[in-house]
Sequence to fold (674 residues):
Amino acid sequence: MTTTTQPGNPGSAPFVQPESAVPGVKLGSILSGGVPDGDPATAWTRRRDSYKLVSPLNTKRFTVVVVGTGLAGSGAAAALGELGYDVHVLTYHDTARRAHSVAAQGGINSARARKVDGDSVRRFVVDTVKGGDFRAREAEAYRLGEESVRVIDHMNAVGAPFAREYGGTLATRSFGGVQVSRTYYTRGQTGQQLQIASAQALQRQVKRGTVKLHTRTEMLDLIVEDGVCRGVVARSLFTGETWALPAHAVVLATGGYGSVYFHSTLAMNSNASAAWRTVRRGATIAYPSFVQFHPTALPISSKYQSKTILMSESLRNDGRIWVPKKAGDSRPPNEIPEDERDYYLERKYPSFGNLSPRDISSRAAKEQLDAGHGVGPLKNSVYLDFSDALARLGKQTISDRYSNLFTMYEHATGENPFEVPMRIAPGAHFTMGGLWSDFDGMTSIPGLFVGGEAGWAYHGANRLGANSLLSACVDGWFTLPFSIPNYLAPQLGTALPGAEDACVRDAVLRTQARTDSLLSVGGKRGPVQFHRALGEIMYRGCGVNRSTESLTTALGELRELRNQFWTELGVPGSGTHVNIALERAGRVADFIELSELMCVDALDRDESCGAHFRAEHQASGEAVRDDNNWAFASAWSVDGPEQGQGAGTEPFTFTRHAEPLAFESVPLATRSYK
Fold:
């Protein structure tokens, strides 16, 4: 049992890692996030001012690899390129602007306090820490709020066309979990417009020659020498060529892993492989089971459906969520009288109503579905109704605010939301968990940095809406370009490893062996079949609600699925050309391993908090935290067999490391939105 002094909460006893109830889990070290001592409100300013600098004459002597071209990746690469570093960027897309940040709809938060509604950086921090159910770093929330002001001005300057009021000032709206209006937006296309602006900034550096962009290229492994990151191994998705790219530092900005559930709001190509490869090389991953199920996704309408579709949370500003009071009521929604409707969020959470946080709204919806109040052909959805707003504001106003979302819904369902309510349901969406990193954004592997949704630090157990685009922009534009030079400065003159160095040669050979193993299994089941089966297991066992029974059952099913994968997988063709089946097989192999750790983490964390809702820990349907034992971040290291035939039956060893969490500015409190 490992102990240390918990640094923040007055009167707290020495921190003790609780023993795990999961067989085989080991207890590891106590981690330090490297947050400067003192007031968390000034921690980022003080840390940034203490960073070492790299002279403009020396920046070109350092090579930095950025993996991913979303808001975090494009921002970091463009900023580092502007500073003069030799930057290489990898993306599996055909162009940087197609990264999944483009899919975000509703908006980006900023504590600019431009409306007289009581907002401030302090209020932003309270909302963010409370929204995450006190399972994130307090100082990170302050950095997010402080830099949010610069983010809006910067993105506006580089071309994001934010919505404006009649007088020309930038417009805002509200999102879940807050009672102020701090969300800046571009209709329902905010992610797309921010992504286009960031990709344009990146392309400017490509033209200048400071950034080399490698499209249709996937990272397959990490080069590590004596525990230090020394570059990546990549594969061309056109030619199949595998090659090493040594670097002084690597930034992983590859997004989240919500697509592990198969049916998710993420793009079909979104995956966890780059991040999971770093875990297999020694990085730790924090809170892997903390997954957000978005309450306004479209319901599954067919077993053959390949993904769900997101409807922006911004719709909850004007839409009211309800179900029929009578279970099994199959009447068309417009025929159900007002007094026979249950506006359950307004009833249960009157202070926040339809803008209750996502985790609470998703659980409330599932409660209605499980009780038989679901609507639609499969009885697997609830209504999001705009009839009141249309009567109050008129069709033109609602169209101005949400027209692209209404059009998208009609194209997907064939129903006109101006005439009938939308049907929505919880769907796997955002992952609050990710690679553990310190306050500088560096992982447990020196030289490997993480940004955006691939990291963990900001959101705790639940992300507030519109904090996703913000955290990616803050990491990319205003954190990593400061912290990476601090790491690089002492390495001036350090040579990069060559092709014949053992760390490079071993990484390339390991990658090629893994590819050969996927091609040589010789079974008859395609990777998508395994991915579907994986999603079904995860929704049942580690979904909106979890329990000891569901997680234990899921772990057994996942271990059997891993065995089936390495004995029954079929991948046609070879690795020397475009081979989509091979790409997917590698990603599914990583998903299956990650899923096992997700269930271990969920079973190990013996409390409810935010989106992690254990059935054994609740009071009247609300999550019950255990701050005496679990006020820390779990960061996992993994030891197990390299992927290949025979790997399906070998067990993994999971080691839980812990970073104690202290709350000095926002005291621990029971989270309530009533």
The CA atoms of residues 363 and 544 lie 6 Å apart. The longest helix spans residues 580-604. DSSP finds 16 helices and 25 strands in the chain. The chain has a mean pLDDT of 95.
